[in-house]
Amino acid sequence: MQSTLLYPSDIAFTETVKAIQSRKGSRRAYANMEQGSGWKTEISEDLKAFIEAQISVFLATANSEGQPYIQHRGGPPGFLKVLDPKTIGFVDFKGNRQFISSGNLADNPKFHLFLIDYVNRQRVKIWGKARIVEGDDALVDRLMPPDYKARSEQVILLEVTAWDANCPQHIPQRFEAADVAKVLAERDRKIEALETEVKILRLAVK
Fold it and tell me: Exposure string (b/e) for 193-204, b if CB count within 10 Å is 16 or more?
């Protein structure tokens, strides 16, 4: 990747990528995008709301040899917190203690965060640089989700370089089990109320 980005999307659109886009016929459209609204470099209010609503995301890192690694991160809504227009923070909960992401970020601070909302069929991609913060209890308290039974290993702060939102094409629509359970419970309540009403009406006509 170029050390200086002419356009925010250059973080992903290297010269090699652009050459392939030209060969396959999509370069003109992306060139227009670059010179128009383009990819964003700061977190908007809409993106902030989207980020803080997530309960499941994927964090990609790469080691010093360029070997990529993707790890799932999850928690209650708000476990990812936008601290300012350029920074996302979250508590890295204790897990299997392999520390692959930690090691990768020590060698190479670049990250990619992939967020997908299956209900609304929306995905967001975020690029930037990350740093790990250890031993900062005040920061942990600020970022730890209330009443969430997890132990803190450390904090990861993500400095956003660029982000982009994709179209919903090919994203299957899925619903969280808790949301489905609420809908079914409401349906059952209405059925029970209707059945009671029918019984009362039957008694009235006897």
Answer: eeeeeeeeeeee
Count of the separate structural domains present in the chain: 3
Does the predicted TM-score (pTM) go above 0.90? Answer: no
What's residue 1's pLDDT?
42
Residues 62 and 149 in one domain: yes
- Are 81 and 99 found together in one domain? yes
Instruction: Spell out, as residue ranges, where the chain has pLDDT lower than 70.
Output: 1-3, 170-172, 175
- Write the CB contacts of 148 (distance below 8 Å, at least 6 apart in sequence): 75, 76, 79
Whole-angstrom Cα distance, residue 55 to residue 2? 33
DSSP state of 173: P
Beta bridge partners of 69: 61
Backbone angles phi, psi at 70, to 5 degrees: -120, 130
Of 117, 118, 114, residue with least CA distance to 172 = 118
35 and 93 belong to one structural domain:
no
Both 155 and 60 in a single domain?
yes
Pair (109, 191) in one structural domain: no
What pLDDT does 3 receive? Answer: 57
Q: Report helix, strand or coil for 83.
A: strand
* Cα 155 → chain centroid: 17
Domain containing residue 186 = 175-206
**Do 98 and 72 belong together in one domain?**
yes
Q: pLDDT per residue over 46-85, tens digit each? A: 999 999 999 999 999 999 999 999 999 999 999 999 999 9
